[in-house]
Design a protein that fits this description.
The chain is about 75% helix and about 5% strand. It is built from 13 helices and 2 strands, in the order ααααααααββααααα. Strands 1-2 form a two-stranded antiparallel sheet. A hairpin with a 4-residue loop joins strand 1 and strand 2. It is globular, with a radius of gyration of 22 Å.
Length: about 350
C-alpha cells in the first residue's frame, strides 16, 4: 500500500461506526456545523434513552431474579452490554463537539475497546436469543434447555467479545494533528507495515463477517424456521391463532429492525474498506456525500442500542406488568409521604 492508502485507512478508521472522529481536514471544514452541532445532539439522545431504557431493563431483571427464565438471562446480559456502550457515549460526544481528543491515551484505548466489545457482545446475545427461541419452539421435544447451559453460553460470549474487542487496545491511539493543532483518537494502521496491513484486513473481516454477516444468517434462519413451524398443522394444533400471530409479528420486528439499523452501516464500511485496499478508486477530494451518509448510518446503528429494551423486553407482557408494578409502588410511596 502507498501513502494514499494510509490516508484512506485513517479516514476509514475515523469514519467507522466504532469511532467518533472527524475525517480529513477537507471534511472537517465542510462539515463543521454538522459535526459540532447535529452529531452531539444525536449522540446525546442515544445516550440518554439508552441509559434509561437499558438501566430499567437491568433493574426489572434484578427484581425478577427469583422467577428469571432462560430468555431473561439473555435479555439481562444484552441490556448490560448496551448499557456499557451508551455509558461511554459522553466521551465520544465530547470529542465530536470539541473536534479534538481531551481524555488521554488510556481513555482512547478503553473507550474504543468498550465500543468494539459491545459491537460483538450485542449481536452475539441477539443470535443466542434467536437460537434459543428456535430450540424452545421447534426443537422442544428433542433439546433440553437449561439455565445452566444458558449461563455457560453467556460467559463464553462475554469472553469471546472481550477477546475480539482487544484489537483497538493496540491500534487505537491519540494522534497529534500538527496542521490543525489538535489531538484525536483514531486508528493507526501504517501502510508501509505489512503486519498492519494484515491486521487491517483482520479488523474488517472480524467486524463485518464475525460481527454481522454470520450472526445475521443464523438469526434469519432461526426465525424463518420458527415462522415456518408456526404455520404447520402440527403447530396449529398446539398454539392458538393469536399466539401464532404474536410470535410471527415478533419475528418480523426483530429481524427487520436489526437489519435496518445495521445493514446500511456495514455496507458503508465495506465501501471504505475496498477503497483503502485500492480495489476501487477513492474520490479526490473525498466525497462529502458519502461522509454524511456514513455518519447517518452510524447513528442508525447506534440507535439499535435504544431499540433493544423495546424490542426484547417491553413487548413482553410480564415486563410491562413489572414496570406498571414499579410505577404504582413509586406513586403509592409519593402519596404516603404527602
Amino acid at each position: 500500500m502507498n501513502n494514499t492508502v494510509l490516508n484512506l485507512t485513517k479516514s476509514f478508521g475515523a469514519n467507522s461506526s466504532t469511532s467518533m472522529n472527524d475525517t480529513d481536514h477537507a471534511h472537517a471544514e465542510s462539515s463543521e456545523e454538522f459535526n459540532s452541532v447535529v452529531l452531539p445532539i444525536l449522540y446525546t439522545f442515544v445516550c440518554i434513552v439508552g441509559l434509561l431504557g437499558n438501566g430499567l431493563v437491568i433493574y426489572i431483571m434484578y427484581l425478577k431474579k427469583q422467577s428469571r427464565n432462560i430468555t431473561d438471562i439473555y435479555i439481562l446480559n444484552l441490556a448490560i452490554a448496551d448499557f456499557i456502550f451508551v455509558a461511554m457515549m459522553p466521551v465520544w460526544t465530547t470529542s465530536v463537539a470539541l473536534k479534538r481528543w481531551i481524555f488521554g491515551q488510556a481513555i482512547c484505548k478503553l473507550a474504543s475497546g468498550c465500543t468494539y466489545f459491545h459491537l460483538y457482545a450485542s449481536v452475539f446475545f441477539l443470535t443466542a436469543m434467536s437460537v434459543d427461541r428456535f430450540f424452545a419452539v421447534v426443537m422442544h421435544n428433542t433439546i433440553k434447555r437449561t439455565k445452566f447451559n444458558a449461563t455457560v453460553l453467556v460467559i463464553i460470549i462475554w469472553m469471546v467479545s472481550t477477546g475480539l474487542g482487544l484489537l483497538p487496545l493496540y491500534f487505537r491511539n491519540v494522534v497529534e494533528h500538527e496542521t490543525e493543532g489538535v489531538r484525536k483518537c483514531e486508528w493507526t494502521f501504517e501502510s508501509e507495515n505489512k503486519s498492519h496491513h494484515n491486521w487491517f484486513i483482520v479488523y474488517f473481516v472480524s467486524r463485518s463477517f464475525v460481527g454481522f454477516v454470520i450472526p445475521t444468517i443464523i438469526i434469519v434462519i432461526s426465525y424463518s424456521m420458527i415462522a415456518f413451524f408456526l404455520q404447520t398443522r402440527e403447530a396449529k394444533g398446539k398454539l392458538t391463532a393469536q399466539c401464532q400471530d404474536r410470535a410471527t409479528r415478533m419475528v418480523l420486528v426483530v429481524t427487520t429492525v436489526f437489519l435496518v439499523c445495521w445493514l446500511p452501516n456495514q455496507f458503508s464500511n465495506f465501501i471504505y474498506f475496498i477503497q483503502s485496499l485500492n480495489l476501487i478508486r477513492a474520490p479526490n477530494p473525498p466525497d462529502l456525500i458519502h461522509y454524511y451518509v456514513h455518519m447517518f448510518t452510524t447513528c442508525l446503528a447506534w440507535i439499535h442500542s435504544c431499540m433493544n429494551p423495546i424490542l426484547y423486553a417491553f413487548m413482553r407482557e410480564d415486563m410491562r406488568l413489572k414496570l406498571t408494578e414499579i410505577m404504582n409502588k413509586r406513586r403509592c410511596c409519593g402519596d404516603t409521604r404527602r
